[in-house]
């Protein structure tokens, strides 16, 4: 039976990298069918809103979406569509793999293979208690961490380790200073860890983690952390392995999951056919894992690596002169 996926082609380079990705998925024979819906600028032009109800309904129905980047118009009244999607579907786990690939402009062309699991619904980014005094001299913000929120994200990280044969989970925190919030997260992480005795658990303070990541990234396997630390660390990890063109991400909840590239709609190169499709392709590989096709996910990742190794049709950001579709065809020929 074919699995139906909601597809959002998005803005800027979105349609180009989505065409490329669907071409490779076709070559994989993953048995998917697609329901295309709109979001972002395209949706605003066609339907008068950035995130139409039909789009939300489609994601709810199918439970899985593959999404290209969306442009959030600059100006009053437009909040991020990505944040809106996260809230609407309670997508609590932001899962961002960072893996070394050959022939990229990375400081670590080998040795890095880690996943950051970031809590997506609590902590410093929820905007609760944001205030600034009338004289503009004092600003405040409330951070809320809950046992429930901490438990489900740490459990997610350990279950992911189990499912993918990974060996170690590192809880990243600042419990020495943020004794209540980060302290609760760490306490819950320790408790959950006892239920996964076969997986090594360790804890690391966030500032030390940043230094360790830059000096010895190979020591990490899965990192689990709260919202703000996860945001920073996952971008740091993307930088370790060659930047935005190779960084995928998944936003996962109980009833829905959305897979995407980490980068934006790249208006500076939109329409030129030179965008690197790898980040969205790697997002598609995460999606294949999620829907129970790990072998196809692995075939896809191996084909990407082989194409990079051969320097076949690489796009300009990787030092080549290839096109988005040319690169995709080179990958498709290796799946
Ligand atoms: P961006 O990621 O779009 O671009 C940053 C730089 O990286 C640009 O020079 C761009 O050309 C390059 N780049 C990005 N992706 C690339 C690719 N696949 N291949 C080659 N080069 C690539 O960031 P930005 O310019 O700050 O944002 C542009 C728009 O994207 C904004 O409207 C922003 O809101 C939106 N955005 C959306 C998402 C999302 O939907 N997930 C994420 C980030 C930004």
From TrEMBL:
<feature type="domain" description="Isopropylmalate dehydrogenase-like">
    <location>
        <begin position="4"/>
        <end position="331"/>
    </location>
</feature>
<dbReference type="GO" id="GO:0000287">
    <property type="term" value="F:magnesium ion binding"/>
</dbReference>
<dbReference type="GO" id="GO:0004449">
    <property type="term" value="F:isocitrate dehydrogenase (NAD+) activity"/>
</dbReference>
<keyword id="KW-0560">Oxidoreductase</keyword>
<dbReference type="InterPro" id="IPR024084">
    <property type="entry name" value="IsoPropMal-DH-like_dom"/>
</dbReference>
<dbReference type="Pfam" id="PF00180">
    <property type="entry name" value="Iso_dh"/>
</dbReference>
<dbReference type="InterPro" id="IPR019818">
    <property type="entry name" value="IsoCit/isopropylmalate_DH_CS"/>
</dbReference>
<dbReference type="GO" id="GO:0051287">
    <property type="term" value="F:NAD binding"/>
</dbReference>
<protein>
    <submittedName>
        <fullName>Isocitrate dehydrogenase</fullName>
        <ecNumber>1.1.1.41</ecNumber>
    </submittedName>
</protein>
<comment type="similarity">
    <text>Belongs to the isocitrate and isopropylmalate dehydrogenases family.</text>
</comment>
<dbReference type="GO" id="GO:0006102">
    <property type="term" value="P:isocitrate metabolic process"/>
</dbReference>
<dbReference type="GO" id="GO:0006099">
    <property type="term" value="P:tricarboxylic acid cycle"/>
</dbReference>
């Amino acid at each position: 039976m074919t699995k139906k996926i909601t597809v959002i082609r998005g803005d800027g380079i979105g349609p180009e990298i989505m065409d490329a990705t669907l071409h490779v998925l076709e070559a994989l024979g993953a048995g998917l069918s697609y329901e295309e819906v709109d979001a972002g600028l395209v949706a605003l032009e066609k339907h008068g809103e950035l995130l139409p109800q039909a789009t939300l309904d489609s994601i709810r129905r199918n439970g899985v979406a593959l999404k290209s980047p969306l442009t959030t118009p600059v100006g009053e009244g437009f909040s991020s569509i990505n944040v809106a999607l996260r809230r609407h579907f309670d997508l609590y786990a932001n899962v961002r793999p960072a893996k070394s690939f050959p022939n990229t402009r990375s400081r670590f062309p080998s040795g890095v293979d880690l996943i950051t699991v970031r809590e997506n619904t609590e902590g410093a980014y929820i905007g609760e208690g944001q205030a600034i005094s009338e004289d503009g001299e004092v600003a405040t913000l409330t951070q809320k961490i809950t046992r429930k929120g901490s438990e489900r994200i740490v459990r997610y990280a350990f279950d992911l380790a189990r499912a993918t044969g990974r060996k170690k989970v590192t809880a990243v925190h600042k419990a020495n200073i943020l004794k209540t919030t980060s302290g609760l997260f760490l306490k819950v992480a320790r408790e959950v860890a006892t239920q996964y005795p076969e997986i090594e658990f360790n804890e690391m303070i966030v500032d030390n983690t940043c230094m360790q990541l830059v000096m010895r990234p190979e020591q990490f396997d899965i990192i689990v952390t709260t919202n703000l630390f996860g945001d920073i660390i996952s971008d740091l990890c993307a930088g370790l392995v060659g930047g935005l063109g190779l960084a995928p991400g998944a936003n996962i909840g109980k009833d829905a999951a959305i897979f995407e590239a980490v980068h934006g709609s790249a208006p500076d190169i939109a329409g030129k056919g030179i965008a690197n499709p790898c980040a969205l392709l790697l997002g598609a590989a995460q999606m294949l894992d999620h829907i129970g096709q790990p072998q196809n996910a692995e075939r896809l990742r191996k084909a990407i690596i082989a194409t990079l190794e051969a320097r076949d049709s690489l796009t300009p950001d990787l030092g080549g002169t290839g096109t988005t579709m040319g690169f995709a065809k080179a990958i498709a020929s290796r799946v």
